[in-house]
Amino acid sequence: MLGVWENFTDIVIVRVDRGRFFSETERKTRAHVCVIGSGIARQLFEENDPLDKEVRIDGKIYRVIGILEKASGEGVIGSDDLDERIVYAPFETVARQYPEIESVAIVVRAPVGKVDEVIDQVTYTLRIRRNVTADAPNNFGVNRAEQVFDIVQQIIGGLAAIVVPIALAGLLVGGVGVMNIMLVSVTERAPEIGIRRALGARRRDVLTQFLFEAVTLTGIGGIAGIAFGFVFAFLIRFIIDFPAAVPLWAIIVGFITSASVGLIAGMWPAFRASRLQTCRHGEIRTACLTLSSPSVGSKGQ
């Protein structure tokens, strides 16, 4: 939740889809009203209209007076998911609810081509207001919007550089593990598969069965990973009060990726299982793996 002034929408790209932003009077009277992101609206109210409904934020009741437009990557945070989960309330209201907050951010919109000039003016004004002597360094920070976004992108890029190789290695190891498990399963279930083939099961039936088993195995792992993601996001929100969440696209991509790993890893074991024939070398119920040998295949038929 961010405490802002009523003119915040004139400075930052924040558009209200339904309802309105709060007024100067509501800010000065510390009214308990708020404007919520579209993601919060969907999560709390689903298909119902959130306008004039009440929400509880850290024990305080706020009335919803506006819903923001769906994020397009141009919001305050720069992340669609986080911008859709943001809540705006009057600055004085938030300051009274959280008196322990000791720092604030002042957002200034500069005309095109005059950013440096505005930064100098802001720096000069703040040094006077904060009684900073001429030889003392600033006791505040002044940053361009692109600097903040660059820092965020660097953090995201650094995390991606670490997480992506680990994820790819995990997929590779997991795929090899699934393939080995399925190969062992084919060997141990050779009699079962041989009997099925003797009773009329086609190679395609056996192939489909083992591919389905491999996809099911990795699919269960994918569901477990998604559940872990939800738990991890909850812990982040609980411990450091950061609006972490698992977006729908991540759930879909994660499950499809897990199933795809199972499909690829299960191809060779499924193919070997489909080549299993019943062989008559002493006992009718003896089964063996054939290596595409026409002579052995003719005996199995």
Instruction: Please give the alpha-carbon distance between the first and last residues.
Output: 72 Å
Helix content bin: 55-70%
Order of helices and strands: EHEHEHEEHEHHHHHHHEEH
List the uncertain runs: 279-301
Structure description:
This protein is of the alpha/beta class. It is elongated, with a radius of gyration of 31 Å. Strands 1, 2, 3, 4, 5 and 6 form a six-stranded mixed β-sheet that branches. Strands 7-8 form a two-stranded antiparallel ribbon. 55% of the residues lie in helices and 11% in strands. It folds into three domains: 2-97, no CATH class; 115-142, no CATH class; 146-300, no CATH class. The longest helix is centred in the middle third of the chain and has 44 residues, at 145-188. Mean pLDDT is 81; it is low at 279-301.
